[in-house]
């Protein structure tokens, strides 16, 4: 609490993505379209799964949760970024900065855990199909989702505590377009090496552990597919390849950003745009364009709406 009482900085100033106003307008238009499509795409998946009875399975239950997380994750940073692209002076209050940092890590960590759970779900479905209904029943699915939100909250609280315990008395310029732990702690009026290492250890351990668990599960799945029929292999590979694409798009930037104590923020900004703007947009496209069940369900719901 002493560190918080010494805080003199009341707001932070973002440098944003660029100082070229023409490029800012182009980025504003591009990211506005991407954000609207992200909201519509993920909302469409959630509505389709909720109102389609035959999609009430563990895989689609987790997919609807992924869409919800993506919708929230992009909403933490993108609206503020769009506002900044239109303003000459891009500011955020200290409290709002900490809130943005907290929710950013909450949703990012929840997505990491959810993608790991989805890999486990596919592992059970493909490698132990006879036990799937008993292992992945609705009670277990709800417990796993509760656990991922609990884990994400604990992780986010740790990151937020490590950040707010530091004194901030100036400067207050963040070389980014949103508040994240690495650029914020750089502004603390004290040595942050130990705090930085604790933050990297916390985020890096979660990202790398979950990523290794994912890779291991997919290796086991690929080995087990040799015993499947040609049609079984095709369906399993289609589902798993879509999931692995999402994993690669999300884990790659996370591991790049949060496993290094020292960063080049100009490079980090490009990578951050990818996982805060592009990945939440790609997820619904990957899962709907490659999934016949979801496409047919959307078509069916549209026809019911038309004829009702």
How would you summarize what this structure contains?
With 308 residues, the protein is mainly alpha-helical. It has 11 helices and 3 strands, in the order αβααβαααβααααα. The chain has a single domain (2-307), classed as Rhodopsin 7-helix transmembrane proteins (Rhopdopsin 7-helix transmembrane proteins, Up-down Bundle), CATH 1.20.1070.
Q: Label the structural class.
A: mainly alpha
Overall average pLDDT:
84
| Alpha plus pi helix count | 11
Largest sheet properties: 3 strands, mixed
The CATH topology label is Rhopdopsin 7-helix transmembrane proteins
Which architecture does the CATH hierarchy give at level 2?
Up-down Bundle
> What is the level 1 CATH name?
Mainly Alpha
CATH superfamily: Rhodopsin 7-helix transmembrane proteins
Counted beta strands: 3
Radius of gyration: 21 Å
**Segments where pLDDT lies below 50 for 5+ residues?**
1-5
Write down the secondary-structure element order: HEHHEHHHEHHHHH
């Amino acid at each position: 609490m002493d560190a918080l009482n010494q805080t003199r900085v009341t707001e932070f100033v973002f440098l944003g993505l660029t100082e070229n106003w023409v490029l800012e307008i182009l980025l504003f238009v591009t990211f506005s379209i991407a954000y609207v499509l992200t909201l519509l795409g993920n909302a469409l998946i959630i509505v389709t799964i909720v109102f389609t009875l035959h999609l009430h399975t563990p895989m689609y239950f987790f997919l609807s949760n992924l869409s919800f997380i993506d919708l929230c994750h992009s909403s933490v940073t993108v609206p503020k970024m769009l506002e900044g692209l239109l303003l000459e002076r891009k500011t955020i209050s200290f409290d709002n900065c900490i809130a943005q940092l907290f929710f950013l890590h909450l949703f990012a960590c929840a997505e990491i855990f959810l993608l790991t759970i989805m890999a486990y779900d596919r592992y059970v479905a493909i490698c132990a199909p006879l036990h799937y209904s008993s292992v992945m029943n609705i009670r277990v699915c709800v417990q796993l989702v509760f656990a991922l939100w609990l884990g994400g909250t604990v992780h986010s609280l740790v990151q937020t505590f490590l950040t707010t315990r530091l004194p901030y008395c100036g400067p207050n310029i963040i070389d980014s377009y949103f508040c994240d732990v690495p650029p914020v702690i750089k502004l603390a009026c004290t040595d942050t090496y130990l705090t930085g290492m604790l933050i990297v250890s916390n985020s890096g351990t979660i990202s790398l552990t979950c990523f290794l668990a994912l890779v291991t599960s997919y290796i086991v799945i690929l080995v087990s597919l040799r015993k499947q029929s040609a049609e079984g292999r095709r369906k399993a590979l289609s589902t798993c390849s879509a999931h692995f694409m999402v994993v690669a798009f999300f884990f790659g930037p996370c591991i790049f950003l949060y496993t290094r104590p020292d960063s080049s923020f100009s490079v980090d900004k490009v990578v951050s745009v990818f996982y805060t703007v592009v990945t939440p947009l790609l997820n619904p496209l990957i899962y709907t364009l490659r999934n016949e069940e979801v496409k047919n369900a959307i078509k069916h719901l549209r026809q019911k709406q038309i004829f009702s």
